[in-house]
Structure prediction request, 707 residues.
Amino acid sequence: MNKDKEEIILLAHGDGGLLTRELVNNIFLRHFDNPLLRPLADAAVLPAQTGRMAFTADAFVVDPVFFPGGDIGKLAVCGTVNDLAVSGARPRHITASFIIEEGFALAALEKIAASMAAACAEAGVTVVAGDTKVVPRGHVDKIFISTAGVGMIPDNLGLGCHRLRPGDAVLVNGSLGNHGLTILSARENLGLEGGLQSDCAPLNGIIRQLLDKCSGIKIMRDLTRGGLATAAKEIAEAGGIDIYLQEALLPVDAAARGGAEMLGLDPLYLANEGKFLAIVDPTEAALVVEILQRHPFGRDARVIGEVRAGKGNVYMETALGGTRIIDYLAGNPLPRIC
Amino acid sequence: MNVLNKLHDPALGRKMVGRVRELAARAAERLGRPVLLMEVCGTHTMAVSRTGLRGVLAGLLELRSGPGCPVCVTAARDIEYMIALARIPGVTVATFGDMVRVPGGQSSLERERARGAGVSIIYSPADAVELARQNPDREVVFLGVGFETTAPLAALSISHAAELGLGNFSVYSVHKSVPPVLRALLELGDVRVDGFLLPGHVSAVTGSRAFAFIGEEFGIPAVVAGFTPVDILDAIHMLLEQVLAQNARTYNAYRWVVRDEGNPEAQQVMEKYFYPGDAYWRGFGLIPGSGLFLSDTFARFDAGRKFALKVPAVADPAGCRCGDLLRGIITPADCAMFGRRCTPAGPVGPCMVSSEGACAAYYHYGATC
Prediction:
């Protein structure tokens, strides 16, 4: 396309006037349309619910905005939905606020909105409110999205670290590190090969199946920033137990392993956007694996370790028969991965 | 199964652990103490910790870290110079990520960046040239920290910048050479190791022959090692065989990557762009002929000459024992600050910062691993 004719976001698109209205109608309402959003009032009016509600907030600043396996829009929906899902909630509604840099291509914004709409449809949630701000060039980098999400928690469900017992099985639903490596490779133009792509996906479907059929799910955590290592450490500390992981059992696919090895990164600490860790009663571990493996987002699901009595440490039993500590990530951060 | 999978094969690894333990037990019995080997390379330090090998061999064999982490051996005065470069308006320093968190006297590149200085993290020296090309109004300085492995790449970046006619690109070279520091370590004689695990990547450039003096002059066995668990176990096995046979030769256990004579092309590039000079190392002070400085032909790409900054002399951080650690006198756990005042989140010395630093490895993976 001729650069001069390309339609771009102007400061006026964020001034609350005509252009703002046009933007909201032509892009956001067109893609997100639903009865709760349609009035475009100052607040969405939702029917009151009884029982417990989960409420989460998230912000997305990923660079690059488009990457293999997704984009900032899909990430925003999946990230919000997954926070609710691992809390045991059934995600219902989300909000989305856009902070856009002046000069951002309208076509790119449209593509982001479309992929958000597709992710919403897949996850069964609706966008019920939002906001748009445009800032001068250089004041943000391209586009940032801030979300909130609500979901209902079934009455009989009680997840929590207090339920953890020695012998509980630790599971993960597939290969680790793919999102973090994909973003790094795309941003730095590293050209990592082998079909590496983000695992960005809404997990509420697969988690719902688990919770419907298993009563022994004790806690779940999505494995975003800090990866599996950080999530395991947080759970161990909160529960006052130790977690032992088996290095030989960790699922890291060939693409992620190759990339991580080349860059000297540990997949255990790399971000995922479609992976969660579950700790379950050992008697149900086989059933959980079976249910997960039947779902497209859980083909490589497996037991990777167990809970033992302890004081909040995470250990890795290495392939050579050694044991090492897994601690919080410190230093060497990869900024702007989500 | 391809070669790489084979080298990560847990079954093969465990079998080799058994054989190494057996040999180590015999060697320890003969010596009347655990065998003491030094892994020179920071990547080996990390690999050994990550596989839990230290714990598996505990009591029979100790693996002590040496001066093989380039960020760690960079002298405090050079860190200070880099910080001073970053403070110059209009200058962007381009550096590998590890360097930004290393504490200088008062500040660090990370802190300078947060205050608005131009500090850019790159993955290859070529990225720094690209940065200079894209930002003609800024002076881009590549911080050349590394051994024989990264020096040729820095040289190629200068060659590339010259081809592009870039006047705004320079290199602050604190590149160093590994054989001289091992000679210095042996001459100091404050640690007596039974063998050296030699760095595989450095040897790929220098050749295993560059380390022949370790056996010939100092009577200590040495083996060039690769980086997978199987590679490392294989090299340890070869060292133990030598200890038991009272042999002292430099062998190459990484034959599919390292040649005796090294990589002549890389050596030629280094000779063209650098000259060996006396360089400061953390923990060692001045070591003759150990630094790789830009030759006069490329003076215009030498940030040291281009900016000619005067920075005040700075001492190593008070209480920091990185120097003793790099000389192999202590392990991280012997430092009173390790894990207490000095952690990866709040590092006092560079060995806790670098992804190849021994303190970072011991902290992340457990002090006994």
Remarks:
- DSSP finds 17 helices and twelve strands in chain B.
